[in-house]
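ok, trying the design again with the full structure, not the truncated one.
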């Protein structure tokens, strides 16, 4: 009887206490391992939905686009005949297709003009200036307007006897009036000027935010040293917003290569104003050359990637030390 009372299920009391302690130690350890495992899995659970959307609406269509570019599909027939790189060869051998690349040069030149204007006003309005909030709103307002509305407004501005011709006549420059959208020699310059008016505000906001993030102590030290405004811009502002300028160059060049909205609304690509994107859409839906248009889209993507890569190599995205 004494043996029964001194044991627990046939196990000595000391052994029972040891087993209980070990079980108590294993339970927190197991719970800790499970908690760490859950912490590692949780971020991937949140990535399921965006990855599914990215694959469904980006990678799958991109893969289909590359496949279509290797065929002669017309967009209707179920059969797609594989023709290899024939579409890509046509892009660089047909003069009427290769010509649209040169239209982008007008918009690339205009993008540099709009960046210069935006940087100039951002530098001025970042300091104390009368009515600077008003001028900020005036510069940024065009970017908020819908592209279709801008196209219609400038369509009336450029029409013969329209607003622009009336202003030129008023200031005595009646001889400068011309067919702004009907003359192949000036139509692309007119459209590029419209893009400058619309997108200057975007670059202005980017530059203004970057300039205002520069510590004010640098300007105070420059004033004490007698630095002029140009010297402050050259040695403080320009290095301080170098990364934003680099980003703006990438956006400007890629946007210039993919211009669509303004020329499509105002001229529909007439009089030599068709951009690469407009030509691609016309080939796909007007001439039912979906395979060829897909190859053009792939070429445009490759050009943008190459330009971005070269720009990043020429202007590395390194940290700028201002202290």
């Amino acid at each position: 009887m004494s043996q029964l009372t001194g044991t627990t299920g046939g196990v000595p009391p000391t052994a029972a206490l040891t087993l209980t302690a070990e079980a108590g130690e294993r339970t927190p350890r197991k719970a800790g391992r499970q908690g760490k495992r859950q912490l590692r899995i949780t971020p991937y659970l949140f990535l399921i939905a965006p990855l599914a959307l990215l694959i469904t609406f980006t990678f799958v269509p991109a893969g289909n686009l590359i496949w279509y570019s290797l065929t002669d599909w017309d967009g209707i027939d179920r059969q797609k005949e594989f023709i290899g790189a024939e579409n890509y060869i046509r892009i660089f051998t047909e003069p009427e297709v290769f010509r649209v690349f040169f239209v982008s040069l007008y918009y690339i030149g205009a993008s540099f003009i709009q960046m210069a204007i935006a940087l100039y006003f951002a530098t001025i309005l970042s300091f104390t200036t009368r009515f600077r909030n008003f001028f900020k709103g005036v510069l940024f307002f065009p970017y908020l307007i819908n592209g279709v509305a801008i196209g219609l407004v400038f369509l009336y501005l450029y029409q013969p006897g329209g607003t622009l011709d009336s202003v030129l006549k008023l200031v005595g420059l009646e001889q400068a009036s011309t067919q702004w959208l009907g003359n192949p020699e000036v139509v692309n310059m007119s459209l590029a000027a419209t893009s400058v008016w619309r997108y200057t505000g975007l670059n202005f906001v980017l530059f203004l935010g970057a300039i205002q993030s520069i510590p004010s102590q640098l300007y105070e030290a420059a004033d004490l040293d007698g630095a002029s405004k140009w010297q402050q811009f050259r040695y403080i502002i320009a290095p301080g917003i170098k990364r934003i300028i680099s980003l703006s160059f990438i956006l400007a060049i890629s946007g210039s290569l993919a211009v669509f909205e303004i020329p499509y609304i105002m001229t529909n690509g007439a009089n030599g104003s068709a951009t690469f994107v407009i030509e691609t859409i016309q080939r796909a839906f007007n001439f039912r050359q979906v395979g060829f248009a897909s190859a053009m889209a792939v070429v445009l993507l490759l050009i943008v990637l190459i330009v971005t890569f070269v720009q990043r190599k020429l202007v590395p995205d390194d940290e700028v030390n201002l202290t």
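Keeping the full-length input from now on. The CA atoms of residues 74 and 288 lie 5 Å apart.
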